């Protein structure tokens, strides 16, 4: 498979700007892997890259992989891979080395049981059981040209293998930084020294996730022409006695032609700017025009986007995304009829509302809303909050947080909707009606926003409920988050709010929800 074909296909899918050379880095660098099942939302799919070092300016791509099959045959011992081994990190355009993961765990410390343990028969339990854990002994080196070419080394893994056992101590290793177990893995056919015979890997099948931005490639990488050094550091102070005994049991040192590595799985890679953006959205911000520099008849820009909504990324674009509100972070709200109904059928109806608040960050806002013309639906008696006029209910200072209601890619179609989760820590509002009936409302309500991914001086919030049940009841992938109300006597029960509010911003703002 040609690497340029991969790059072209990726750019076609929702316009992901990910150079073919970077894709090759990802393909080679993720040699250990099996991609998990597709998740419901894009943020869940991008969650796999949570440890990508995106804050490193040189990193342009992210890769994560999970080995779930294969085996290591070292000397006289064969260790089956029956647990997941994760390899992750960042990709650059200038170096073939994988940039270490942000959490420091580029290669997971996954322990695999060594069959036969120390004595060849596991009869003494923990005293003879041995756990083999592969650790990196140097940088992972990637070869751009060989991964899909099915020849040569696609990825070189320098390893040291810790042998865990109470009798061996914690520093018993096969291999070291100065003398690693070097695996130049290939998807092609090996040419080993005897007595090993050639084995062949598999380049794999390419698929797409994350709205077409995440490349998923299954593969099988192999190597059986590497040497394995003897053990060192085994038994602590008695290592001079224990090391040779360990070598005899494990059949090491073992020259090339006596060892084999087969790593089955697949990997995922994506552009790092998309990973960073997916972590941040949805958010409030501004798409601003950058200052151009005129050189002759040409004007050059230093922005990151080419469009006035900051949806189409391009280096040297005329627009830049600035998260959060500007100098005028205030907004006002108004609505006509609002109805609060419980699942038991009790309801409070208000004819109008007016509110004022401000955006306090890229994802948060505060507001206070005054409802007027409020009455119990059944008895038509007016209700009011303490200190307010008849029929007037004033909420507590409300807090709002942005979240995804829907964030899915279905084929070529991207479905994104964003809502504001409105709540207050103890109680949203309380009121008393003419007959003495009490009203108390707590919990939170998620109201979808009408306009996203576009600069606008206004917006709308539409809370929808049927028979006391809110739609939606939670953000995508989140916990259930609904209202609870007590109208009259009895314990609070689930309730829903139906109301459509118009928002007027103090300045043009955008709710960014899409990643391209």
Any chance you could write out the topology, listing elements then pairs?
Layout: H1 3-12, H2 20-29, H3 42-46, E1 61-67, E2 69-74, E3 77-80, E4 85-91, E5 111-113, E6 131-136, E7 141-142, E8 155-164, E9 173-174, E10 181-185, E11 206-209, E12 214-223, E13 231-232, H4 239-250, E14 260-271, H5 272-280, E15 283-289, E16 293-295, E17 298-300, E18 303-305, E19 313-317, E20 319-323, E21 330-335, E22 338-342, E23 347-350, E24 352-359, E25 364-372, E26 375-376, E27 383-384, E28 393-394, E29 398-410, E30 413-423, E31 429-433, E32 438-448, E33 456-466, E34 469-471, E35 483-487, E36 493-512
Antiparallel strand pairs: 1-4, 1-14, 2-3, 2-14, 5-6, 6-8, 7-8, 8-9, 8-10, 9-13, 11-12, 12-14, 15-20, 15-36, 16-17, 18-19, 21-24, 21-36, 22-23, 22-36, 23-26, 24-25, 25-28, 25-29, 27-31, 29-30, 30-32, 31-32, 32-35, 33-34, 33-36, 35-36
Helix pairs in contact: 1-2
Model description:
The protein is mainly beta. The protein folds into three domains: 3-274, no CATH class; 282-323, no CATH class; 330-512. 9% of the residues lie in helices and 43% in strands. It has five helices and 36 strands. The strands form five sheets. An eight-stranded antiparallel β-barrel has the order 21-24-25-29-30-32-35-36. Strands 1, 2, 3, 4, 11, 12 and 14 form a seven-stranded antiparallel beta sheet that branches. A hairpin with a 2-residue loop joins strand 29 and strand 30 (413-423). Helix 1 crosses helix 2 (20-29). It is elongated.
Q: State the separation between the terminal residues, measured CA to CA.
A: 25 Å
Largest sheet: 8 strands, antiparallel, barrel
Count of helices?
Answer: 5
Numbering strands along the chain, what is their spatial order in the largest sheet?
A: 21-24-25-29-30-32-35-36
Instruction: Give the proportion of residues in helices.
Output: under 10%
Subunit arrangement of the protein: single chain
**What integer value in Å does the Rg equal?**
30 Å
> What's the pLDDT, averaged over the residues?
86
Find the structural class using helix and strand composition.
mainly beta
Shape by Cα distribution:
elongated
Number of domains: 3
Beta-strand percentage range: 35-45%
The number of distinct β-strands equals 36
Low-confidence stretches: 1-39, 120-124
């Amino acid at each position: 498979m040609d690497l340029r074909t991969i790059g072209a296909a990726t750019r076609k899918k929702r316009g992901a700007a990910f150079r073919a050379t970077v894709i090759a880095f990802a393909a080679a660098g993720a040699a250990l892997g099996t991609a998990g099942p597709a998740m419901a939302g894009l943020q869940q799919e991008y969650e796999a890259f949570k440890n990508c070092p995106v804050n490193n300016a040189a990193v342009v791509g992210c890769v994560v992989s999970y080995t779930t099959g294969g085996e290591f045959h070292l000397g006289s011992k064969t260790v089956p891979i029956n647990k997941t081994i994760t390899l992750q990190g960042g990709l650059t355009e200038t170096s073939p080395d994988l940039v270490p993961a942000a959490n420091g765990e580029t290669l997971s410390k996954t322990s695999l049981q060594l069959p036969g343990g120390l004595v060849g028969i596991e009869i003494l339990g923990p005293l003879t059981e041995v756990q083999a854990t592969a650790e990196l002994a140097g940088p992972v080196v990637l070869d751009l040209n060989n991964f899909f070419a099915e020849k040569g080394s696609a990825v070189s893994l320098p390893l040291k293998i810790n042998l865990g056992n109470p009798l061996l101590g914690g520093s018993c290793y096969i291999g070291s930084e100065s003398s690693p177990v070097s695996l130049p893995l290939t998807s092609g056919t090996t040419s080993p020294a005897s007595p090993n015979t050639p084995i062949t890997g598999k380049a794999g099948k390419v698929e797409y996730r994350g709205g077409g931005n995440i490349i998923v490639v299954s593969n099988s990488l192999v190597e059986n022409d590497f040497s394995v050094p003897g053990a060192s550091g085994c038994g602590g102070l008695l290592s001079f006695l224990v090391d040779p005994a360990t070598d005899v049991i494990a059949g090491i040192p073992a020259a090339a032609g006596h060892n084999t590595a087969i790593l089955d799985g697949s990997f995922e890679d994506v552009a790092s700017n998309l990973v960073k953006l997916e972590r941040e959205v949805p958010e409030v911000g501004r798409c601003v025009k950058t200052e151009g520099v005129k050189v002759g008849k040409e004007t050059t820009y230093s922005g990151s986007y080419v469009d006035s909504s900051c949806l189409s990324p391009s280096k040297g674009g005329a627009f830049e995304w600035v998260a959060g509100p500007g100098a005028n972070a205030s907004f006002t709200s108004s609505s006509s009829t609002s109805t609060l109904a419980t699942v038991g059928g009790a309801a409070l109806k208000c004819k109008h509302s007016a509110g004022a608040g401000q955006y306090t960050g890229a994802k948060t806002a505060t507001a206070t809303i005054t409802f007027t013309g409020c009455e119990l639906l059944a008895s038509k008696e007016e209700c009011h909050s303490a200190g307010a006029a008849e029929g007037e209910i004033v909420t507590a200072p409300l807090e709002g947080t942005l979240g995804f209601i829907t964030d899915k890619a279905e084929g070529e179609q991207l479905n994104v909707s964003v809502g504001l989760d409105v709540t207050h820590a103890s109680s949203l509002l309380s009121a008393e009606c003419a007959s003495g009936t009490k009203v108390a409302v707590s919990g939170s309500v998620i109201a979808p926003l009408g306009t996203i991914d576009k600069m606008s001086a206004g917006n709308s919030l539409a809370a929808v409920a049927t028979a006391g049940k809110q739609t939606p009841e939670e953000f995508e992938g989140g916990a259930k988050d609904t209202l609870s109300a007590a109208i009259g006597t009895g314990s609070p029960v689930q309730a829903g709010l139906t109301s459509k509010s118009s928002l007027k911003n103090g300045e043009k703002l955008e709710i960014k929800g899409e990643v391209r």
